[in-house]
Specification:
This protein is α+β, with helices and mostly antiparallel strands. It contains six helices and four strands.
């Protein structure tokens, strides 16, 4: 079976299947850790949806967002980040709290800490500076052995770059979250989070301020 290049991106960014040692937190979350061991982190299942309308600056939702569709859980997320990709797409990522895990009470504390952080911190500033390093870690657009950018179907190169961009932002957000959590006494790799997961959803406008359909041309 031929693997989609996006599968390779996800595999390369996936956390380890065993807990990391409790080493220095700064070392674990450093941006330039291409060869560093990633700490165990709960799964984040990111879905793709229709884009919410963003203002021209990409910093606020316009009034007519009710005509667009978020998943039911994403209508009241624990956290959200609005940002502009390097390709000009204006996007928003929304996340639920974590569910499951070995210690539900501990997972609940983690969720409360994250919710407070999203409400009080400058999240974009905490995340944006990390994105270039994440893009570098992910590398260029993935191509199969018999593919070149010139031979891809119309829109496919744009789709793969979009996937690469949002994955970099998702990873940068995860690092910023865990940096905050570590400062609050919830370090990455804690066994009490084992088996937990959460949902995320991304929605974007393209460079023409039109809804981006990631399935087109892919």
């Amino acid at each position: 079976m031929i693997r989609d290049p996006f599968d390779d991106l996800l595999d390369r960014s996936a956390p380890m299947s065993v807990p990391a040692e409790k080493t220095d937190v700064d070392a674990m979350i450093a941006d330039a850790r291409r060869s560093a061991t990633r700490p165990l982190r709960p799964r984040v299942l990111v879905a793709v949806g229709l884009a919410a309308v963003l203002t021209s600056g990409g910093l606020g939702l316009a009034a007519a967002t009710d005509i667009f569709s978020w998943a039911p859980w994403a209508k009241e997320p624990i956290g959200a980040v609005q940002f502009t990709m390097a390709n000009g797409f204006q996007c928003e990522l929304r996340y639920t709290g974590y569910t499951g895990g070995e210690d539900p009470a501990y997972v609940g504390e983690v969720n409360s800490s994250l919710e407070s952080w999203y409400r009080s911190a400058d999240i974009l500033a905490a995340v944006e500076a990390r994105v270039p390093a994440k893009l570098e870690e992910l590398g260029p657009i993935e191509l199969q052995a018999d593919e070149t950018l010139e031979t891809l179907p119309p829109g496919e190169a744009q789709h793969r770059e979009w996937a690469r961009q949002w994955l970099a932002w998702d990873l940068a957000i995860s690092d910023a979250e865990w940096e905050h959590l570590a400062s609050e006494g919830y370090p990455p790799g804690d066994d009490r989070m084992a088996g937990s997961e959460r949902n995320g959803q991304i929605q974007c406008l393209d460079e023409n301020q039109e809804l981006y359909n990631p399935g087109a041309g892919s």
